[in-house]
Every structure is written in structure tokens, then in C-alpha cells.
């Protein structure tokens, strides 16, 4: 019995997400290069979420910042499929969610660039 290796994996980067692409455009304009992967965009989303929570926290405390993070759930995020949101509600702590949340990508032969294979959960 032989085992075939799967050549596609679940990733967070989706070039169809305009929020993420606009961030990468600004990054490229400022620094002169562009990394089309999930790492810069994930960091952008995390920083935006933390800054929003701390800026909107009343009072500036853990409960205050948690409440302000919940209030920002309607802000579109740059990672994953278009329309992905962040939520830290009372009963969920997983952050990114939405239709098309899972994005499958396949690496090229050199293992450097990838392309979209499919989005899962899209409506």
C-alpha cells in the first residue's frame, strides 16, 4: 500500500481579500518589496485588533479591552477569504472566522510561491 503525499495545504493568504492586498500595496510602496504570504497580513490583523481594543477600552483594563474587541467584530480583516472577521465573544475565542475561512494553496516546484486551490465554506 503506497501513501500519496498531499500537495496542497490550508493557508491564511488569499489574494482576493482586498483588505490584505491594500495593506500589501501600501507596504510595497513604503519599503520597496512585497511578500505575498500570510505572515505580514496576519501581523497587520493582530496589530489592528490590539490597537483597536486598547484605544477603545473604557476603562483601560482587561475587561474594558475585551469589550472593545467585541465591538470591533464588524471590521473586515486582511487575512483569509474576503469578508473574514475577528470575534472574541463570550463563547468563542478563535478570532478569525467567516464564510470561506479555510483557504487551500499549493506551492510551486521551488516551494516559494503558491496559488489558490480552493476556498472552503464560501456561500
Brief characterization of the structure:
The chain has three helices and five strands. It is α+β, with helices and mostly antiparallel strands.
- By DSSP (H or I, 4+ residues per run), the number of helices equals 3
SSE order, as H and E?
EHHHEEEE
Write down the domain tally: 1
The rough form would be described as globular
List the helices and strands and how they pair.
Layout: E1 8-11, H1 18-31, H2 38-56, H3 62-71, E2 85-87, E3 95-97, E4 102-107, E5 114-120
Antiparallel strand pairs: 1-4, 2-3, 4-5
Helix pairs in contact: 2-3
Structure description:
The protein has helices at about 20-30, 40-55, 60-70, and strands at about 10, 85, 95, 100-105, 115-120. By secondary structure, it is an alpha+beta fold. The strands form two sheets. Strands 1-4-5 form a three-stranded antiparallel beta sheet, with no helix packed on it. Strand 4 and strand 5 (about 115-120) form a beta hairpin. Helix 2 (about 40-55) packs across helix 3. The longest helix is centred in the middle third of the chain and has 19 residues, at about 40-55. The protein is globular, with a radius of gyration of 17 Å. It starts with 7 loop residues before the first strand and ends with a strand. The model is unreliable at about 1-5 (pLDDT under 50).
